[in-house]
Write a structure and sequence with these properties.
Elements: E1 2-10, H1 20-24, E2 30-33, E3 36-39, H2 48-52, E4 59-70, H3 79-88, E5 96-98, E6 103-104, H4 105-113, H5 119-126, H6 137-146, H7 171-176, H8 181-193
Antiparallel strand pairs: 1-4, 2-3, 5-6
Helix pairs in contact: 3-4, 4-6
The structure holds iron/sulfur cluster (2 copies).
């Protein structure tokens, strides 16, 4: 669940209409219209447009009149389906995946089960991908792939394929190194698929 306290605000007199902000907004909530950026009320307050804007404070963050809450109730979908999708992504339902939005793997799975199939839809459903993107991207990519989504085309600027983890290392490469890889992999798989 993400609490959105701020919203982007454009100073029309300073905006050059360069569209840089458009390119970094994963939710398409800032768009240049008639050469001036316009912010939609659905803005999730990630501040990426502010960071990228080269024109002196053409876009800034301002407090929302009331905070907005973004999240999916994991209890609204079948627990077995949630557990199964998480297991296929090598995660436990209760495992924290996004520390910025405080979102668990189970909440992301629930949003996907309810129909989210892109980064934008998952952002609006759970609040993920709006912060650092250090931890949430690989498990999100993996869960979307389970549902057949091509993550290179799932929207926004994240156009690369699955971030690799130990489950993706080819057998031949595993056997070349003497780091007890097979044992580590078996242990990690067991711990991630063994339930809450
Ligand atoms: S990046 Fe800044 S100057 Fe460029 S369109 Fe967006 S708000 Fe305007
Ligand atoms: S703050 Fe983030 S979500 Fe809001 S308009 Fe800017 S880039 Fe988009």
């Amino acid at each position: 669940m993400l609490q959105v306290k701020f919203i982007a605000h454009v100073d029309r007199a300073k905006c050059s209409g360069c569209k840089l902000c458009e390119k970094v907004c994963l939710t398409d909530t800032i768009k240049v219209v008639n050469k001036v950026a316009v912010v939609d009320d659905d803005c999730l307050g990630c501040t990426r447009c502010v960071d990228i804007c080269w024109h002196d404070e053409a876009v800034v963050m301002v407090p929302r009149p009331t905070p907005r809450y973004v999240g999916t109730d994991v209890n609204e979908v079948d627990a077995e389906q949630v557990r199964g999708l998480c297991a296929q992504a090598h995660r436990l339902p209760g495992e924290l995946v996004c520390v910025c939005a405080n979102t668990s793997a189970g909440e992301i799975a629930a949003a996907i089960i309810k129909g989210a199939r892109s980064f934008k839809e998952l952002s609006f459903a759970t609040g993920v991908l709006q912060g650092c993107q250090e931890f949430c991207v690989p498990p999100i990519q993996r869960m979307l792939k389970v549902k057949g989504v091509d993550v290179t085309k799932a929207g926004g600027f994240l156009k690369y394929d699955q971030t690799l983890s130990m489950w993706d290392i080819p057998k031949a490469a595993q056997e070349r190194f003497e780091y007890h890889f097979a044992e580590d992999l078996a242990l990690a798989t067991k711990s991630r698929e063994g339930g809450e």
